[in-house]
Design brief:
Layout (H helix, E strand, L loop, with lengths): L1 E3 L4 E2 L2 E2 L15 E4 L1 H7 L6 E7 L5 E13 L8 E3 L26 E5 L2
Parallel strand pairs: 1-7, 4-6
Antiparallel strand pairs: 2-3, 5-6, 5-8
């Protein structure tokens, strides 16, 4: 999973709930994915899903985002994108570049499941 900022946002300051860049209005509880990835995950545009962050050894952690709305968006397959800073808690403190110390906001391992 990667994180992005919306149009109405500067760093962690959110000025509005609209993201005209991606056609999302009035909400930020979304997960973007390609149409092909949605088919692989067996979800449809508008459905609600949960994301569970994985540990470095691939096991489920307690870090999660529940009831995110699927938004089909033209992007790379095998990728998911959520908004920053809402998804900050999905990143572990040790997930960063060892040289620069920059957090791995573009490479958070997650698992997706349908939301009840």
């Amino acid at each position: 999973m990667a994180t992005v900022r919306s149009h109405d946002q500067y760093n962690t300051t959110i000025y509005g709930m609209d993201d005209r860049y991606r056609g999302v209005f009035g909400q930020r509880d979304v997960v973007f994915m390609s149409a092909k990835q949605a088919k692989i995950c067996r979800v449809k545009n508008g459905e609600r899903v949960n994301l569970i962050a994985l540990t470095p050894d691939g096991k489920r952690s307690s870090r999660r985002m529940d009831r995110l709305k699927v938004v089909i968006y033209p992007m790379a397959d095998r990728s998911l994108v959520t908004y920053f800073p809402e998804s900050n808690h999905m990143l572990t403190l040790d997930n960063h570049d060892p040289l620069s110390g920059i957090p791995g906001y573009k490479s958070i391992p997650v698992e997706l499941e349908p939301s009840n």
